[in-house]
């Protein structure tokens, strides 16, 4: 039908727009609690770019090696 | 491992608290003892170090009046002269270094000092921590491909071959 790499790549790529949409909440919550603008850049990169990328790829990684949903949730809680 | 979703969610909360405890903030790094390897392994360590260092690092601490510790120096000595050897080691400041009766002593000078002694967090590590988080992301993506190939794809092929070889 199609190559297995297509499945992996599409799983990874389809999460990117979703992550970027969620990252937009940064602009609603960061300044309203009074944090300084000079420190915003790194916080955005770490909390709203690197962290969503980390947990979505982690979830995919776990899901790819397990057979059932309970097994996936068990493994991801054990090793995150 | 878990037979049902309820049990797996119970196990999830227990094990997730495990990960959170060992990130060096809930249980400070210096108090971990043997578990320091878990502190190094947990990705949350680097995530928290980066965020917390960025959020409150590099700031001067000013003690409120009730936070100063009153210390009485020996007679004939000023506060600065009496406490300087300790302060140069531990980092702290005095409200009035030239006072001779009661020294008002603030145990911390900067937030970096406080975070390093209490939680082993250095704000200067922030780009390293971002790099570690992105490396872990890359590793996850790699493992996803590898596991998809080794387990799901291999099992799939095996099933097909078993079906093909099975006598009908």
Structure in words:
The complex is a heterodimer of chains A (80) and B (168). Chain A contains four helices and no strands. The mean pLDDT of chain A is 80. In chain A, 75% of the residues lie in helices and 0% in strands. In chain A, helix 1 (4-23) packs antiparallel against helix 3 (40-64). Chain B is mainly α and 168 residues long. Helices cover 58% and strands 5% of the residues of chain B. Chain B has helices spanning 5-21, 36-41, 43-56, 79-90, 111-119, 126-165; strands at residues 69-71, 93-94, 103-106. Chain B has a three-stranded antiparallel β-sheet, covered by helices on one side. In chain B, strand 2 and strand 3 form a beta hairpin. The radius of gyration of chain B is 27 Å and the shape is elongated.
Question: Strands, helices and their partners?
Answer:
The complex is a heterodimer of chains A (80) and B (168).
Chain A: H1 4-23, H2 26-29, H3 40-64, H4 69-79
Chain B: H1 5-21, H2 36-41, H3 43-56, E1 69-71, H4 79-90, E2 93-94, E3 103-106, H5 111-119, H6 126-165
